[in-house]
Amino acid sequence: MRAPRRMARESFRAALACAVLCAACSELPSKLPEALCAADPGPQLLQGRHAGPPVVAAPTGPARFVAPLYEQFDLSRALDCVRFVDGFYRAPANDGYAASLEHVAARLRAAGFGGEAGFELTTIETQLTARAPNSSELVLASAWTPLDARIAMIGADGVERVLHAFETPEGRDRVMLPVNAPSCAIEGGIAFSLDELEPGELLVIEAAPLRTVLTRAETLGAVAVLSANIESYNADPSGQFRHLDAVQYRQLPAGQSLPVGMISPRSLEALKKAHDVDAKLRVRFAARVKFDVRPLRTLCATIVGTDRAAEAVVTVSHVQEPGANDNASGVGGMCESACALSRALHAGAIKRPSRSLVFLWGDEFRQSSAWLGATKLRAVAALSSDMTGESLEKTGARALLERMPDPGALEVFAPDAHTPWGKAQVDEAQFAPNGVALIARCALLDVAAHDAAHDAAQGGWETAEHPFEGGSDHDVFIEHGVPAALFWHFTDFAYHTGLDRMENVDVTEIRRTGVALMATALALADPLPEDLDRYLRSLNEEERLRASAAESGGAPLVAESWRRWCAGARQWLRIECLRIPENELKPTK
Q1: CA-wise closest residue to 436 among 389, 397, 384
Q2: DSSP reduced 3-state for 562
Q3: pLDDT value of residue 582
Q4: Given this model, what pLDDT does residue 34 score?
Q5: In 19, 81, 288, 555, which residue has its Cα 20 to 30 A from 135's Cα atom?
Q6: Element (H or E) spanning 46, and its range?
Q7: For the purposes of burial, counting CB atoms within 10 Å of the CB of 104, is it exposed (0-12), middle (13-18) or buried (19 or more)?
Q8: 547 near 559, Cβ under 8 Å?
């Protein structure tokens, strides 16, 4: 059945928005609506503020879904969900993790999931495991929930100065306790190196609290370790030195017995200055945590497809980790996107897709493995929603698309650039050409065009893409042979620190990324023959750009690898859009 007329009108408006942005960036002729309706629209390209290849402007592919998803996406509901999840220090299966899953589930139920035919809501339970100390063996683990903690220094005058403390789940300094840190109530002198450490003292270091350091410190009689470690990418790009107040989020091995606390660089400097004046300076460290034996839960919502319901496009967002952007924004954004899609389906603005759509919320990596191990569906593509809400102005992070392993991971040429997360080890044997990244790129630029057409004051959505680096749920699907991509933001100076809180969240960014991700998922779940022309023309643009950049950079083998990749992606796109059995597909350029 064809899309409803309203959908056709909205699709055309999305295409028109694309044309508006294209005209602004490329000075194309003003009569673009007629050209868009012509049989051969020509090289009308969308570029906007995207650091990557352009795509062809057309009302097809993900552009079919952008306008109705935008219309149904409720900014206030998304922000409320993010704020709720950010109110907890979320570790696997702990109290905050469980509360966050229940909150998301309640919102999904209100949108029809779990109560209407074709809108399923289930929970997958698996054992919570961890690696045994000094071993690769997995053992049963307990859910860790921090209750409160306090680190203070005490001078010779007996006056106590609190460096870090929290008393409630939403406390700003809650990450002062690494995951799996034990309860404690200790006091002692301090040493700033292992060589100076005396029994009964606290070791205070700038380095990370690695297992080797903790083992040696415990052997030497330390009663606790305090670490002021932060990463190089946490440097504040604004020049305000906000990172000096950052307390880094860390995890310790399960069963850790030596108390460990995280402090900020500013607190480390305060301790050193106070110790220079008073060598008998003491530190008091108290913490209360609890451990619960409970299963690890993964929340699964499914919109059942029409004629290919046994095939699924999966979108995934991890709940654990304590930040507002990482990853309360991904959780809240994907929750509201799923609810917005449900509302659009009920309103008839979007038709139910051919394939099933699956949404997962749980523990990073393990949620994807749990679903793959439990499902009877066949995953055909996967998308990860991780760190989707960073304010560019406040954090310096822009929206990114991470592609799966492709020739760009062999050697980087502009407009590609790796993030500070770092390059992954990739070889051509890992390549499985497909069009997932291309469709996601179309979605990013379709959303940017929609923004530009409806709110020119925003200045355009700044996006980029980069070769595969790994580090989220897309890894799991790629390892299982499923094409996958990651929607995220980086570099964020507050990443994995106590500074990652609501003041750095931009809800309009959550909507942009959420709509782009959902439009990509829908385009993958319901590819149509009329999508193919846009995809192939866009792929031609990418091939020209990639091969030319590699050849200009003196890497003809990489250029040839890109040509092979694009040839494979071309075949993949034809199979998807035309539903051609792979054994009947003839080679084509």
Answers
A1: 384
A2: helix
A3: 63
A4: 33
A5: 288
A6: strand 45-46
A7: buried
A8: yes
